[in-house]
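Researcher: Please predict.
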Amino acid sequence: MPPPDLDSLRIKDGARAGGPGGKILRIFAASLGVLVLVIGGVFALRKQMPAVEVASARGANDPQAQTLLNASGYVTPRRRATVAAKITGRVTGVFFDEGMRVKEGQLLATLDDSDAKRGLDTAVANRNASQAAIADLEVQLKYAETQLHRAQVLFDEKVESQEALDTARTNVDSLKAKIALAKVQVEAAGARIQEAQQSVDNCVIRAPFGGIIVSKDAQVGEIISPMSAGGGFTRTGIATIVDMNSNEIEVDVNEAYIARVLPGQKVMATLDAYPDWQIPSHVRTIIPTADRQKATVKVRISFDKLDPRILPDMGVKVAFLSEETSAKKTQGRKVAQGPAAKAIIPKGAVRGEGGTSYVFAVHDGKVERRAVTLGRQVGSDVEIIAGESRNPRIGAMHGKR
């Protein structure tokens, strides 16, 4: 057997990884990978579209064009009461439920009045006893006056002594005083009867004004009290009544802009529950104090016309309109009229280039660039004085191609 040839296992220099051929292979593979990444990135960028927000231009007579200030708040009733008892007692009857409409003075609930009625019966009995004592004293007075008359006759005839006459007169005066005292006691008993009757009446809870029950806070068998006893076992109220005819809007206006708000100013309100329903309103009053913590002033707004859909504690957004303000400021003098606005668009849709403003208008699915002349700024919107006036859909582009 011939010996093994170890030279046949040797790797040629051209086939080594570190040789010229291996380096060329690695460079080619790396270049191919980079080219694939570049081509993929180009196709990805071509497919990426810019983010476009499209909004419709509004007419110049849109109510928001006259907006001086926007704010948000809640619907709050001016007449809202948590009805409670004047005394502590156990509930024996509840005659209402949530959503029920009640009238002023209507019976809502009753408390246990057994102790109060016993007190009333005692006061009546004391009064009757005092009145009976007066009758007895009047009989005694009549007899004493007869005795006095007899003693006076006998004294005049020198038969009776002066002491007997004085005794008879004293008896008459004493009985008159007792009768007067008994009458005062009867009046005092009458006052105690009224007090006891008031205690009985306090066991009956009635509606203080007409409205709708929005909360039922106590049930039969529970103890209610005008003061909280702690522990959560004693109720402090039995019902909450809201006068829906007193609903209004309460908003906090930043004190830096409160000068734009005037009493009687027109307001356009929009409930969060009905965003497409604009409710004409007006400023009722401006509370003459500021909240130093929030730097705001409270403003109360009344609805021009109430609607059953307007409920307490609903969220609402309001826009203070400038029509009323402008009328007051320009009363009795002429004001130069500037160019009339043709439309109102979002301020973010306007672009500028070389001192020229333009927008992208969408017509028939196509985007057109149109130069515009801008007017005054209205909140986050801006007026168009010249340029696009056909109320198109305006596109605002964000991002890059």
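Model: Residues 114-156 form the longest helix (43 residues).
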